[in-house]
Automatic annotation (TrEMBL):
Location of the F-box domain: 11-47
Source taxon at top rank: Eukaryota
PANTHER family documented for this protein: F-BOX DOMAIN-CONTAINING PROTEIN, OS02G0105600 PROTEIN
Name of the protein in question: F-box domain, leucine-rich repeat domain superfamily, F-box-like domain superfamily
Length: 553
């Protein structure tokens, strides 16, 4: 036997690599590791000094520190200051990030000094995540190069901040206390997000603002006067936990003529809303429990989502009216109590371009007709009163059906063996089929030329499956041991079997399980999942005897 000669390659020294590549390698390291690397050679030290990103994480610093929280915080601040002083940066600094928790900690002037040094160096992106601190930015805070500012847990004057940073394009504030009313103008600002901030008034004049996100505190939402009517180019508007909603929201949606996306989430005091804007493409209403009426007039609307209360008794009785819905491609309704069989049939007839329909916890649906020429994706989930569904969708490629939740043990009356076989014969282009908690299924036949993904999950009444799907590349099963009459798939198919606890552990059970496994010998990989020791030990013994089993969990 001849020995193969291995070509030896000369070792590559990192210091010989081009500067951009070394900087890219440094981007995967922590600040501490980069600092250690810088002491290896003068060149590394120079590269470290020109590295445009500085990041400090108090949690990582604390791993090797022994002492009180107060002393550790003080030493961490000193570490930040020392690192910045030692760098002798000779290139523009692009990012400066600090993750720490300064809550109930007195932050001294050293941190101010560090921030001012970074600003002097021309930083373009600054991110300070300081927990729920009482920290206030230094009086000298100002920058002509700062483009992106992300702050969490600070006290600040937003209006003054915008004035002294004239190049800002993105501002993200989280859990901050805004000391004065935020009334300002900016020609550079393109995106602003306020998450759980304490502020009484926001008034912005920003001709180039594209995105505005506002969220009041979830635990203690407070009224806030919002006026962004002069930001005529806003394309994305999201309002969350607003407690003084009303006409002003309708006015904003109507007046902002370039608006593409409007999201209203957890706004508890809005009973009626009328949305009118012909440029709108996407509209979402989520958890606005006081809503009883939604009227939408948007000729360009492509996506609409409503999410109410998911419960056995249905959601809030909210009447949804579309005055122009021809262009809608994606319709998602969850917990919509007034969505009836007749309402759904009427809307489907009007929405001639619909491609995706998702209905979840719509418990007023009983006997539905889904007849549509363009529909590609259909999901019916937890519609507990649904007893019959007539589906005629020749273009459908994905169908998901789930009955109830894990605690609901009622037997589903709609999806039976005969119903499934009948629907599969109609859905000639179906590529994905997912059935979950369909407990009326007993002996199923899944014979289909196009299906590529098949999932059978927690169908507790299932006893036998006859599967002939020559294009199948992914199969997932969760439940009891069942019998297979046939299992035809691609050779590249990856199968996952997740088993529940067996009722008995005798020879008959093991033989039944071995027989089930024999139908997956042709698969590229077989993954077995089990949380029960007795079954797991049996799986482990099989792993050494069955080459198809690639993993036992």
């Amino acid at each position: 036997m001849t020995k193969k000669r291995l070509r030896t390659m000369d070792p590559i020294n990192i210091s010989d690599l081009p500067e951009p590549i070394v900087h890219h390698i440094m981007s995967f390291l922590t600040t501490t590791d980069v600092t250690r690397l810088s002491i290896l050679s003068k060149k590394f030290f120079a590269l470290w000094g020109s590295y445009p990103v500085i990041e400090f994480d108090q949690k990582r610093f604390a791993r090797t520190y022994h002492g009180t929280l107060a002393s550790m915080t003080k030493d961490f601040i000193q570490h930040v200051l020392n690192s910045i002083r030692q760098r002798e940066i000779n290139a523009v600094l692009s990012e400066f990030r600090v993750n720490a928790n300064f809550e109930l900690i007195s932050v001294d002037s050293r941190f101010d000094t560090a921030i001012l040094m970074v600003l002097k160096n021309g930083v373009t992106c600054m991110e300070l995540n300081l927990g729920f601190a009482d920290y206030v930015l230094p009086d000298m805070f100002a920058s002509k190069t700062l483009h992106v500012l992300r702050l969490k847990g600070l006290h600040l004057d937003l209006c003054g901040l915008i004035k002294v940073c004239p190049s800002l394009t993105t501002v993200l504030l989280k859990s901050c206390v805004i000391l004065k009313d935020a009334e300002f103008s900016s020609k550079t600002l393109r995106e602003i997000e306020l998450h759980s901030c304490d502020v009484k008034c926001i008034k912005i004049d920003g001709p180039n603002l594209r995105s505005f996100f506002f969220s009041s505190d979830k635990r203690d939402p407070k009224p806030c006067d919002i006026d962004v009517l002069k930001c005529r180019n806003i394309k994305y508007l999201s309002l969350n936990n607003v407690v003084n909603g009303g006409y002003w929201i309708e006015e904003h949606v109507y007046t902002l003529s370039e608006l593409k996306t409007f999201v209203l989430n957890r706004c508890q005091d809005i009973g009626h809303i009328r949305i009118c804007n012909d440029k709108l493409v996407r509209v979402e209403f989520r958890h606005c429990h006081a809503l009883t009426s939604i009227e939408v007039r948007a000729t360009s609307l492509e996506s609409f989502a409503y999410e109410g209360i998911e419960s056995a008794h249905g959601g809030m009785p909210c009447n949804i009216t579309f005055l122009a819905s021809k262009c809608i491609k994606d319709l998602s309704l969850k917990g919509a109590a007034l969505v009836t069989d007749q309402w759904l049939e009427t809307q489907l007839a009007r929405m001639t371009r619909l491609e995706r329909l998702k209905l979840k916890a719509c418990n007023t649906l009983r006997r539905i007709k889904v007849i549509h020429e363009k529909l590609l994706i259909l999901e019916l989930c937890s519609c507990l009163s649904l007893v019959e569904a007539e589906i005629h969708t020749p273009q459908l490629i994905s169908f998901t059906y789930r009955y109830g939740n894990a605690n609901n043990m009622e037997r589903d009356k709609m999806v039976t063996d005969q119903w499934l076989e009948s629907q599969l014969a109609k859905m000639t282009r179906l590529e994905r089929l997912r059935l979950k908690r369909c407990n009326s299924l007993k002996k199923i036949k899944v014979w289909h030329e196009k299906i590529q993904i098949l999932e059978l999950c927690s169908c507790n009444g299932l006893e036998e499956a006859d599967i002939d799907t020559p294009q199948l590349i992914s199969f997932m099963y969760h439940g009891n041991v069942i019998e297979f009459g046939k299992m035809v798939t691609r050779g590249s198919c990856i199968a996952t079997l997740s088993m529940i606890q067996w009722t008995t552990y005798d020879n008959a059970s093991f033989c039944k399980w071995r027989n089930m496994l024999s139908f997956f010998g042709h698969c590229k990989a077989l993954r077995l999942i089990c949380n029960y020791p007795k079954v797991y030990s049996f799986f482990s013994s099989l792993q050494y005897n069955t080459s198809a089993i690639s993993q036992v969990i």
